[in-house]
């Protein structure tokens, strides 16, 4: 069951998105609420699974991974679990989604260069059960992954 968020949850998530290392007392001061309220809200968000952690937001291009690709993989259906496990072993695989349509999996990959991407794709093609791939290069990312506008809409449009 989905957790119900309110405007305070939305404001707390926005503050944490800006700086996940903000101390509890500073969050309380910024939001104009008690420290215990911040702690209780954070515990509720974390224990419900709505907030899964506070990892650093790493700019992959800044650390040498300038090529980003989305790869659609068509595969033997009975080998999906094994293929997903094989992809999990690739450090360059950032995420994998099971999808509908021609591609069974949509895989996001970061590579240092086009040559590096080619080598990664050759390894992907060598996975037993991979039938066909279609690779799309990301030329730019005008909107990075985000969820706060959706959370804000959810909490501000409640009747």
From TrEMBL:
PANTHER family per the UniProt record, alphabetical: LEUCINE-RESPONSIVE REGULATORY PROTEIN, TRANSCRIPTIONAL REGULATOR AZLB
InterPro entries the record matches: AsnC-type_HTH_dom (IPR000485), Dimeric_a/b-barrel (IPR011008), Tscrpt_reg_AsnC-like (IPR019888), Tscrpt_reg_AsnC/Lrp_C (IPR019887), WH-like_DNA-bd_sf (IPR036388), WH_DNA-bd_sf (IPR036390)
Q: Which GO terms describe its cellular component?
A: cytosol
Q: Which Pfam families match?
A: AsnC_trans_reg (PF01037), HTH_AsnC-type (PF13404)
- What is this protein called in UniProt? Lrp/AsnC family transcriptional regulator
Q: Where is the HTH asnC-type domain?
A: 5-66
Where along the sequence do coiled-coil regions lie?
Answer: none
Q: Which residues form the signal peptide?
A: none
Q: Per the UniProt entry, what species is this protein from, by scientific name?
A: Nocardia uniformis
Tell me which Gene3D superfamilies the record gives: 3.30.70.920, Winged helix-like DNA-binding domain superfamily/Winged helix DNA-binding domain
Q: State if DNA damage is listed as a keyword.
A: no
> GO MF terms on file?
sequence-specific DNA binding
| SUPFAM superfamilies assigned to the protein according to its UniProt record, in alphabetical order | Dimeric alpha+beta barrel, Winged helix' DNA-binding domain
What are the alphabetically sorted keywords of the record? DNA-binding, Transcription, Transcription regulation
Q: Name one GO biological process term.
A: response to amino acid
